[in-house]
Amino acid sequence: MNGVMGKVNVLCEWLVRLVLIQFYWVLFSLLGLVVFGLVPSTMAMFSVTRQLVIKNGDVPLFQTFKENFFTQFWKGTGAGAILLLVFGILYVDYRFFIEHESMSAVAFLIVVISFFAGMISCFLFPVYAHYDVGVWEGIKKSVFVCLSHFHYGLLTMAGVGLLIVLYVMFSGLLIMIGGSTIAMFLTILGQKVFKNIEQKYLELQGKEIH
To answer: Angle at which helices 3-31 and 171-209 pack, to 10 degrees?
Structure first.
């Protein structure tokens, strides 16, 4: 099928995939009672979106999601605990310092730190999906990616922010494809960054050999 109808058909296929991924994300999060299932389910979602990007849609969605959810459950639980601890501390500190006018500069610094933590988090799940690494190694790689490709970090935050605004305006989209579209967006950007890093590494290796 070519022409406009062909493009519409492809668009519809991708939309269906995003809706299904969103459904599986919610389903497996509930399977882990949300508290224990949200992060492992999110990691599985990013693994699926990575496979979709690499294989251009030729992926058994449910099987891939299920396998990654269970194989990465404990890694996801560990990563989730660390993220909860970091952002929890930042939030409590912000609430404490914002109530003291003399400490407003410190509160602003916490906001800046939170922004950087958000950028690192945007790369964290694509890193876990792309590299076979443990919890701490994944965090270190995310920090490296964020610092070495800072402009992409800003782009991720801007893109996610715009998507969130869109979903606030149209709540139906949030329910249908909110999480899956954000995951797809971050996966596409992440793959560009990883490809760039790997290319530079190969070039460096070639120079060292010569």
So the answer is: 100
Which residue is it, tokens 């730190």? 113
Contact 138, 93 (CB under 8 A): no
Asked if 97 contacts 103 with a C-beta cutoff of 8 angstroms, the reply is: yes
Which of 39, 133, 50 is closest to 79 using CA atoms? 39
Q: How far apart are CA 166 and CA 188, in angstroms?
A: 19
* Sign of the Cα pseudo-torsion (196, 202, 204, 206, in order): negative
pTM of the entire predicted model: 0.92
CB 138 within 8 A of CB 79: yes
Q: Which residue has the tokens 């979903």?
A: 167
Cα–Cα dist 198/194, whole Å: 6
Distance between CA 173 and CA 177 in Å, rounded?
6
Residue 50 has a CB neighbour count (10 Å cut-off) of 25
Evaluate the CA torsion angle 167, 170, 171, 173 in order and state its sign: negative
Q: What is the pLDDT of residues 127-150, one digit of tens each?
A: 999 999 999 999 999 999 999 999
pLDDT in tens, 23-66: 999 999 999 888 899 999 999 999 999 999 998 778 899 999 99
Contact 80, 49 (CB under 8 A): no
